[in-house]
Every structure is written in structure tokens, then in C-alpha cells.
Amino acid sequence: MQIMTDGPTLMLSGDLDVRSTGEVRNAVYDHLRHHDGAITIDMSEVETIDLTALKVLAVASRFALRGGQRIVLRDACPAVRRMLHLSHLIRFFEVEREAIAV
């Protein structure tokens, strides 16, 4: 798992699973502390995700909402979106798809 930042955007790449949840959790909460409003988590390079990682992101999203912030998931691949729906955790996020180039 690699985590990079670009302003209010966290860019994740690799496997987002139980082994990387601590690192991702710390990065998300740190980002929330340093940015007002919405933060975006770019998921375009996330290859796999498991339920543990989704729960970490959902808890962070609830925390953000209580503080007047929000977490937006960007470019989640179909497998990640499917996991969000199957787990019913989709309700905790705004999920943004990449704009279609014309």
C-alpha cells in the first residue's frame, strides 16, 4: 500500500486490506485534521479492498461528518463499489466516478 497526498486528496495504491488499515487510518485522520470541508480519497490505483479496510474508511467518514467534514471516494473500481454495496457501507460515502473523456 502506498499513500500519497495532493492538497485535500489522499491517493491510495495497491492492496487495501487488514495489513494496511493502520497506515491508512492514520493518514485519513491526519488529513482530516489538516483540511477543512471535504477530503477526497483517490481509489483509482487500489487493486483490492477487504471489509476491514472498508469499515476503517466508514468509521473515519462518520467521524468526519460529526465534525462538519466529509470524505469523498474517487474513481473506485467496480470491485470496490461492489464491496461498498454488498457491505451496505456505501451510505457513509459520496462516491465519485472519474469523468468520461470525450
UniProtKB/TrEMBL annotation:
The lineage of its organism: Bacteria, Bacillati, Actinomycetota, Actinomycetes, Propionibacteriales. It holds the Pfam family STAS_2. This is Anti-sigma factor antagonist. It comes from Nocardioides immobilis. Residues 1-102 form the STAS domain.
